């Protein structure tokens, strides 16, 4: 073979080899799902911090908005802040151009009349067909100040054009005698039995009724301590017995009850027209006040706020339909209701009024109306509307309980949204003791041998133990969890079915004669309820 022929053949082999290599490379790229195109340029947007708060009439801390380039992106990006609330200005601007890899700090200037609350602001970044967004949560907080005028302590919370006020009367134990919005008052203060206040009851003594504001002779409970800070009110008082005649007093002599009430009032600055009341309640006596529904709190409003709104369904906290009951024009008690979202509102025909959220109390409320035809419906007139949350307590020696309540003035639909936000926060303590009843034996029964003790018990959370006591000493632990559909029917949406208990009491352990039988029920939060005493006679 000549030299020229060898050169042609060599070039052909090299060309074939290169072509094979290129085909193999293309096959590999295709097999890997690739191709020869690089990923398109893009960007991302981020903010830091993602939430800021500031009182109305001031500027928020700065928020950094940053663009990060991806895959070689180098274009300019248009940034726009959307959803900025009325009364809020963005500094330096709510719309600007920003290069990839750059950042811009903005702050929010809140006017003195900006609405209180939290608003989501969308940061929208666009460049051609590319678009990305992120949110900033801006909270406008109310301005709060406190002062004393005469015998009343006041706390105001709001803006230059929208202010809510709460007032405490120091001549009436620090009871809440005013909740108002822009001068419209909701609370009735006709006498010491009204207001917004706690009042205590006993299942073993129907006359025992320490009431924070004072007694049935309209004598006020003296405040033993009080203080004002720039943003809170504190009072301490020992409530008077509402009916002093049963305890050595009368028209000329007030009698102090054996309870101590400490109260601290603050504003919820990120929610309009909202006040938080913290109570610390202490029993000063060495006796036992049998289990009963405490008015914790009792709520009285003026005449026009006679519609009671609450949630009475079986799926609380799902924004279900509310029940609104129109109180009759005659002062008769309404039947108890179950409000599983732990709030109720007394409102007028325009849905305005006073909402009270009691996250720690039991969910049973009662209500009535009392109209005086000569009343004009003002806060000191006799016409009123009422409801109360009934915390179930056995008040024994050393009893101490603390709880938070929220008063929200204005539209009850807006108030419900605030209640939902509060509910989504840290869970409230369980302060309500179980409900219980002894079915058998009955008072006056003669028992012998093995006597059956039976009844029922349920709790707003969960019962952990049912103990049978004879003469105050534990005889044993009952078998708990038996079906009681009658109890579930009597307490709809509150009591489960399996709440019955039984215990076989060996009466031979006790001397013949009279004894006192009680039941002590404990829930999983260590709240204790002691049943009314059942007097029995052992005869073996």
Structure description:
The chain is mainly beta and 540 residues long. The chain folds into three domains: 42-141, Immunoglobulins (Immunoglobulin-like, Sandwich); 143-423, Beta-galactosidase, Chain A, domain 5 (Distorted Sandwich), CATH 2.70.98; 435-538, Sandwich (Immunoglobulin-like). Helices cover 9% and strands 49% of the residues. The strands form eight sheets. It has a nine-stranded antiparallel sheet, covered by helices on one side. Strands 32, 34, 35, 38, 39 and 40 form a six-stranded mixed sheet that branches. Strand 10 and strand 11 form a beta hairpin. The termini are far apart. Residues 1-36 have low confidence and may be disordered.
Tally of individual helices: 3
Low-pLDDT stretches are: 1-36
Q: What is the CATH class name of the largest domain?
A: Mainly Beta
- The domain count comes to 3
Q: Termini distance? A: 134 Å
Mean pLDDT figure: 90
The CATH architecture classification of the largest domain is: Distorted Sandwich
Query: Order of strands across the widest beta sheet?
Result: 17-18-20-21-30-27-26-23-24
Structural class: mainly beta
Strand content: over 45%
CATH topology of the largest domain: Beta-galactosidase, Chain A, domain 5
Overall radius of gyration: 35 Å
Percent range of helical residues: under 10%
């Amino acid at each position: 073979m000549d030299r020229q022929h060898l050169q042609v053949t060599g070039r052909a082999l090299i060309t074939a080899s290169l072509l094979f290599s290129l085909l193999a490379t293309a096959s590999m790229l295709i097999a890997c799902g690739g191709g020869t195109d690089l990923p398109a340029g893009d960007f991302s947007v981020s903010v830091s911090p993602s939430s800021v708060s500031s009182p109305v009439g001031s500027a928020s801390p700065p928020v950094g908005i940053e663009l990060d380039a991806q895959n070689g992106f180098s274009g300019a990006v248009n940034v726009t802040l959307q959803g900025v609330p009325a009364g809020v200005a963005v500094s330096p601007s709510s719309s600007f151009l920003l290069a990839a890899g750059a950042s811009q700090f903005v702050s929010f200037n809140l006017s003195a009349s900006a609405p209180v609350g939290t608003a989501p602001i969308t940061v929208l970044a666009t460049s051609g067909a590319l678009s990305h967004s992120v949110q900033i949560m801006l909270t406008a907080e109310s301005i709060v100040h406190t002062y004393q005028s005469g015998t009343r302590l006041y706390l105001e919370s709001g803006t230059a054009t929208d202010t809510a006020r709460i007032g405490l009367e120091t001549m009436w134990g620090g009871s809440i005698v005013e909740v108002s919005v822009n001068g419209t008052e909701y609370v009735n203060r006709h006498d010491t039995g009204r207001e917004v206040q706690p009042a205590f009851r006993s299942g073993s003594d129907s006359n025992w009724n320490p009431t924070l504001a004072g007694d049935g002779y309209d004598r006020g409970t003296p405040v033993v301590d009080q203080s004002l800070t720039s943003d809170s009110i504190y009072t301490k008082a020992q409530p008077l017995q509402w009916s002093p005649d049963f305890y050595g007093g009368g028209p000329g002599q007030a009698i102090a009850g054996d309870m101590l009430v400490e109260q601290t009032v603050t504003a919820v600055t990120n929610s309009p027209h909202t006040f938080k009341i913290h109570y610390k309640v202490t029993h000063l006596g060495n006796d036992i006040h049998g289990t009963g529904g405490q008015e914790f709190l009792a709520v009285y409003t003026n005449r026009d706020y006679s519609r009671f709104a609450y949630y009475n369904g079986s799926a609380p906290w799902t924004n279900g339909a509310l029940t609104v009951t129109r109180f009759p024009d005659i002062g008769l008690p309404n039947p108890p209701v179950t409000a599983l979202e732990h709030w109720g509102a007394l409102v007028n025909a325009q849905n305005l009024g006073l909402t009270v959220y009691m996250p720690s109390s039991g969910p049973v409320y009662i209500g009535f109306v009392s109209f005086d035809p000569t009343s004009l419906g003002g806060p000191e007139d006799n016409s009123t509307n009422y409801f109360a949350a009934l915390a179930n307590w056995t008040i024994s020696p050393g009893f101490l309980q603390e709880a938070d309540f929220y008063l929200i003035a204005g539209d009850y639909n807006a108030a419900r949204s605030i209640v939902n936000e509060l509910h989504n926060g840290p869970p409230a303590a369980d302060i309500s003791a179980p409900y219980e009843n002894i079915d058998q034996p009955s008072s006056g029964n003669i028992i012998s041998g093995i006597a059956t003790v039976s009844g029922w018990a349920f709790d707003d959370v969960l019962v952990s133990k049912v103990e049978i006591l004879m003469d105050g000493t534990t005889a044993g632990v009952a078998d708990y969890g038996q079906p009681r559909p009658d109890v579930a029917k009597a307490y709809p949406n509150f009591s489960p079915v399996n709440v019955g208990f039984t215990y076989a009491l060996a009466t031979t352990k006790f001397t013949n004669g009279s004894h006192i039988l009680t039941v002590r029920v404990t829930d999983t939060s260590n709240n204790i309820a002691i049943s009314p005493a059942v007097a029995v006679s052992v005869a073996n």
